[in-house]
Amino acid sequence: MPELPEVETIARGLASGADNLIGRRVARAHASWKRTVAAPSAAAFEHRIVGQKIISIGRRAKYVHITLDRDTLLIHLRMSGDLLTGHSQEPLGTHSRLQIWFEDGLQLSFQDPRKFGRVWLVANAEEVTGKLGPEPLEATLTPTRFYKMLAAKRRQLKPLLLDQTFLAGLGNIYVDEALWEAKLHPLQPSHKVTKPQATLLLRGIRKVLKEGIRRNGASIDWVYRGGEFQNQFKVYQRTDEPCPRCGTKIKRIVLGQRGTHYCLKCQKKG
Description:
By secondary structure, the chain is α+β, with helices and mostly antiparallel strands. Helices cover 25% and strands 23% of the residues.
């Protein structure tokens, strides 16, 4: 599933280059697979979005956030989603579930082989994103605030950091990498993390996310294209390979149905 750096990269791509969507006005839309549209109904979506102009494109957590002149378009790519642009009257991609054409003929196509992705067209984005936790890169998330957030929970670090209502945008890759950076065990109870450890963890989260964005995300399967962060992994998908810091073999466990990678020596459970 695309995580924060991958979604950020996609959003930036839609707002730049020859096919950037900023300032374009919607001419028509079609939902090839109706359930792709989570709200409103597919028919209402196709009618309501016509004539609306794209004002800005950004990201909130793992959502592509597109501000229109009347509504907000939110796109969650889930497991296999991708967004394609090009000039064609036929749907772009082999598994296009939703197409939006603009007045100059440019098409935005939601490619989604597994059909898990969803799209919302809402008057207020908070209807969809209101329960999300803070953004890990925002300045208001200070080390002290983050420490208090951890102390208020009694959960293992890995599942907690994956919880989008706790902290928005992190997924399996970047949590494993951030915990390695901070030398914290994925099973460490959050309320037992010290303030200095919380500071190191927040620093580690921000380090791997910024590097992920700089390298256009990670390309580790056939879905997401063009990233290079997979070449920088310290622990993720490196089972039995040596830890870059101490040489100990990387261990893999399954935690909450997620493959979890860590160093037995560097990340001892305290």
